[in-house]
UniProtKB/TrEMBL annotation:
Keywords: Membrane, mRNA transport, Nuclear pore complex, Nucleus, Protein transport, Translocation, Transport
GO BP of this protein: poly(A)+ mRNA export from nucleus; protein import into nucleus
Stated name of the protein: Nuclear pore complex protein Nup93
Ranges of compositional bias, category Basic and acidic residues: 768-779
Amino acid sequence: MEAEGFGELLQQAEQLAAETEAVSELPHVERNLQEIQQAGERLRSLLSWVSVTDIFLLSLDIFHISQRLESLSAATTFEPLEPVKDTDIQGFLKNERDNALLSAIEESRRRTFLLAEEYHRESMLVQWEQVKQRVLHTLLGAGEDALDFSQDIEPSFVSDAGVPGRSALDSVEVAYGRQIYVFNEKIVNGHVQPNLGDLCASVADSLDDKNVSDMWLMVKQMTDVLLVPAKDTLKSRTALDMQMAFVTQALQFLQNSYKNYTMVTVFGNLHQAQLGGVPGTYQLVRSFLNIKLPGPLPGMQDGEVEGHPVWALIYYCLRCGDLGASMQVVNRAQHQLGDFKTWFQEYMNSPDRRLAPATENKLRLHYRRVLRNCADPYKRAVYCLIGKCDIADNHGEVADKTEDYLWLKLNQVCFDDDGSSAPQDRLTLAQLQKQLLEDYGESHFSASQQPFLYFQVLFLTAQFEAAVAFLFRVERLRSHAVHVALVLYELRLLLKSSGQSAQLLSQEAGDPPMVRRLNFIRLLMLYTRKFESTDPREALQYFYFLRNEKNNQGENMFMCCVSELVIESREFDMLLGRLEKDGSRKPGVIDKFAGDTRAIITKVALEAENKGLFEEAVRLYELAKNPDKVLELMNRLLSPVIAQVSAAQSNKERLKNTAVAIAERYRTQGVAGEKSADSTFYLLLDLMTFFDEYHAGNIDRAYDVMERLKLVPLSQDSVEERVAAFRNFSDEVRHNLSEVLLATMNILFTQCKRLKGAAAGTPGRPQRSMEDRDSVRRW
């Protein structure tokens, strides 16, 4: 009978072994009967130290919870249970209760996934918006034609990538940067604000570049129109008196420039010029004509004055901006000029250089009847200047250069609209601007070969934003464009885009037709991007100009740019200051630019936190005196590493040193954060000590630490108390509970083996061994 029983048992064992071997994932254990018996004896002797009751207490309520979950047959799928018969009331109620639980679980799971997807989507949108802004700044920063690869590419005098460890600024940018530093130092120290135009113009003197020098002379001339900065730039720029002032300043610049040109020409050819007589514009022009017009020309009318055509003398005196010299010529030839002397006297005495409507109509009528087809190009040009007529004639015979053409057209611009002028005889500033910017454009003026000339054409017609945007596209001239924009911005003459995402040059709804706006924020950010990583101090100087600007979200652009600059350059200590050992803060570069440095540091810290740079954010929050955020982030950083084995230069070792330094500072200074974060922080530090002792093999010390922490129940009486306390722990502590339990059990097991190996009742046994044995028994 026993043989049959053992045979059946053997058959079942073989069948079970075959099924086990079919499962390849399970490890194979091969033991004979003697080894199995010895293992059983060891297990029995180990369990003799632990009562069955204690084992059940250790499991807490896990067994009951698992039973309740397993009772739900749809626990893995969360699908509703099948309905039961209507007559089974108890089953029906149980089924309804289970279905309600499953529905709640499923709804919670669905909401959690939807919320996670929404957070992920919002995060991706924010990141994409930031990336998109960078791409747009790079690709569209050069204006509407930035992606036209067919255009001629201007040579760059500066390499795109700076030498590692060295400045990315070239000599011109360094020279401008010094002047910006001087300007900002005066402002932040409360001194009288210097003239930024004069500071930037001094750079041109050191460059020995006539084009740059002339450019800054023109900028200073065109911006010398206001004594008090305008509150509304658009209203001020489009006002009649302001536009008249711009035209007047442009004419003065062109006239002074031409007079200097005639002087250079005359003094460079003194023998041919035959300069003599009373010094003045008349003698200068007469000598100039000895070079330019060495003999009588066909078509000249109304005689000569001292061997030169009278109308040529009048024209060139006007071109040099000297009405008195022109009147001197008119007086000498008055008998040959008819009514022109009377008209010219009225023109000369008019404050706005405009004839009375009746006189102007007479002159225009005389011009159309007699002079339109006149063979003397200088006479036609003078009449068109005085009477502002025949605006379609470009007078190419006398105005053979762009500056001459521009001067002649600016003289013909009208600002009044009295209705007395025919449309063909009326040229407004807006019409001239459209003609130069849109009708002719860059190709007509060969802008790629002569960038300063086209810049001058736009700037002298008060198209400042278009001029700056064009010059900014020429890489070797970009620094000049930026600083011209800064001068206009400080004088409140710059029309800025209302949105940060706008193109570099744009039009906005509601603006007059020829008004263009410059994206000033993008201009500065594009300029500083080249050197902000190598020269953050210089970049900060430029960002200070954005202290009153807001982005689309209403955030201060100075703070936003500083935040990005600090994170990109990682120069936290230099820019924002650093924390000394005694808890005091050593000022950084930012301190002289902002009174409330804590707000800026907090902004940078928040940006670093949002980008996942938690360790940097901890340093910044501590610098901003925000212990709550410091402890919150430190808890988040410490939680994943406290159970790891410490090693030199490891992630845990670095975080541990940071945490210990923070703890020492806070305890010395009496600083405390929010109660929950504060207690969690110090508990995590104690747990780190526990694991360090455990991994180092200091079992008794580790046990003492755990005993003092009272984190897990070490006796039957403390189970309920520890379970209740566990609910109050933060997630950072709870996530490590499994590691804590495992380490504690290993400690107890080690103590158990050590105590079992000791001889029972041996004299002189330490009292600590007896206490350990009692503790292990309780477990």
